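Hi all, posting the design record for the shared folder.

TITLE: backbone redesign
STEP: 1 of 1
STRUCTURE INPUT:
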């Protein structure tokens, strides 16, 4: 049996594509290895969102040269968002002659055909068309987990935030029909999956362009109606499209987790406008207030970009103020990274990168304290967790997540894994909670 090694570098959408790639390879007769050392086929499924993601891929592809020398007939394939950028493909063509197959985000479903071409002609294959609008349904999927599953509900993005490459590499927004989604989720639940995460770059614009009359809140209600003991998560919600209807739906649907990832990016109105985000600080804070009034135990998380072109110390302090005002449970923070072809790439960017790094450190320091205080609020409370693996706190521990997505370690037998259990929180560590089984 030939062995494939498939590695996905990017967001959950990218990981989900990787699961389809593995599904197709499995049907083609491949087995799998977690290491590239004994692989006959290596596929790197790349991410283009920041420069360091791209650098990592180039480094790892460079290292494969040696594998190829050692292993005759080995094939190297690259796919994912980086491959939708002409300048990247040109660089790979020229400087990485040992890469055999390059395919883009719109032709993942054609992998069997493209791989056959590479194997039978022994020539390099490049297939990175820009055309989109295609949703390839019913591909085989080889999922990474047995408890938690990713389910894309839409592809692409129409928002063109000025810093972001995603709309260029993923194409225009398009939604799957609710019938296909419901069919997939029902299948997963009957196979024993306990947590379904619905994916889209902006799930709140789900349904646009479909023949059926449906929006994201409507889809959530339908999925919530599927029988079985499981949880629903979703990401990502763009604040400009997160409506009171969405919040009400979250409050009313018992399977939908009380966690909202609501990327704010910046606390400065001037920067939000320059980012093309279509909301201002006050709109965002109003939405947060409404969400908390309807769902008091809601966990809120966000993405922040530090050092957008033209961001001043004053703008940055507004972001600091916003994170203190909101009090996020956790944050994903990034230093702005210039992406070729985006509008922000040609904006003036006078702030030295050392300043940006310093600002980011300041922000992380403040958030650390906020996050720790949030965790402490849970001590003494009873929470339901999905036990999902062995614990870190000792040999006889298991671990799981609350619906707010906090990690809880507790003493308990391994056969709890895969079950929902009620836990009383006894202690807050700085990375997780400790609890005892009720
Ligand atoms: N569609 C999602 C996010 C996709 S990218 C949304 O709109 O929220 C995930 C995060 O990466 C973004 O929220 C942003 O914070 C960050 N990001 C995107 N482009 C970036 C860039 N050029 N530099 C730094 N961070 C970036
Ligand atoms: Fe990028 Fe903005 Fe689209 Fe998110 S909404 S993927 S940040 S362009
Ligand atoms: Fe990266 Fe593409 Fe996702 S750029 S973040 S893998 S959509």
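Okay, here is what came back for every position:
SEQUENCE:
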């Amino acid at each position: 049996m030939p062995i494939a090694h498939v590695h996905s570098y990017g967001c959950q959408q990218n990981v989900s594509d990787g699961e389809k790639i593995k599904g197709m390879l499995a049907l083609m007769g491949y087995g799998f290895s977690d290491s590239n050392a004994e692989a006959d086929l290596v596929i790197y499924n790349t991410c283009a969102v920041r420069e360091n993601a791209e650098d990592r891929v180039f480094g790892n592809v460079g290292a494969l040269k040696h594998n190829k020398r050692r292993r005759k007939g080995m094939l190297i394939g690259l796919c994912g968002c980086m491959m939708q950028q002409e300048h990247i493909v040109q660089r790979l063509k020229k400087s990485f002659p040992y890469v055999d197959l390059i395919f883009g985000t719109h032709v993942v479903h054609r992998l069997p055909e493209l791989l056959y071409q590479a194997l039978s002609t022994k020539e390099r294959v490049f297939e990175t068309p820009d055309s989109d609008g295609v949703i390839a349904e019913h591909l085989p999927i080889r999922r990474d987990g047995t408890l938690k599953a990713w389910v894309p509900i839409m592809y692409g993005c129409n928002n063109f935030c000025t810093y972001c490459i995603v709309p260029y590499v993923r194409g225009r927004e398009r939604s799957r029909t609710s019938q296909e989604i419901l069919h997939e989720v029902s299948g997963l639940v009957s196979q024993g999956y306990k947590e379904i995460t619905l994916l889209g770059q902006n799930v709140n614009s789900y349904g646009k362009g479909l023949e059926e009359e449906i929006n994201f809140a409507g889809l959530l209600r339908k999925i919530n109606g599927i029988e079985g003991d499981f949880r629903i998560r979703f990401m990502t919600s763009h604040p400009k499209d997160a409506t009171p209807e969405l919040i009400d739906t979250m409050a009313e649907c018992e399977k939908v987790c009380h966690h909202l990832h609501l990327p704010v990016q910046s606390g400065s109105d001037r920067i939000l406008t320059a980012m093309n985000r279509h909301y201002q600080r006050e709109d965002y804070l109003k939405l947060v207030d409404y969400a908390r009034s309807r769902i008091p135990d809601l966990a809120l998380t966000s993405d922040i970009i530090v050092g957008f072109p033209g961001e001043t110390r004053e703008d940055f302090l507004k972001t600091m103020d916003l994170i203190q005002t909101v009090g996020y449970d956790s944050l994903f923070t990034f230093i702005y990274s210039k992406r070729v072809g985006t509008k922000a790439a040609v904006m003036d960017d006078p702030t030295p990168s050392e300043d940006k790094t310093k600002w980011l450190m300041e922000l992380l320091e403040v958030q650390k304290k906020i996050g720790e205080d949030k965790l402490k609020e849970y001590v003494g409370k009873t929470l339901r967790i999905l036990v999902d693996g062995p614990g870190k706190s000792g040999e006889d521990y298991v671990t799981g997540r609350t619906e707010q997505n906090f990690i809880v370690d507790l003493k308990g037998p391994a056969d709890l894994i895969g079950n929902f259990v009620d836990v009383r929180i006894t202690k807050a560590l700085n990375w997780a909670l400790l609890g005892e089984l009720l």
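COMMENT: Residues 49-50, 163-164, 166, 201-202, 236, 238, 263, 265, 303, 305, 334, 336-337, 339 surround S-adenosyl-L-homocysteine (ligand 1) (CB under 6 Å).
Let me know if anyone wants the other runs.
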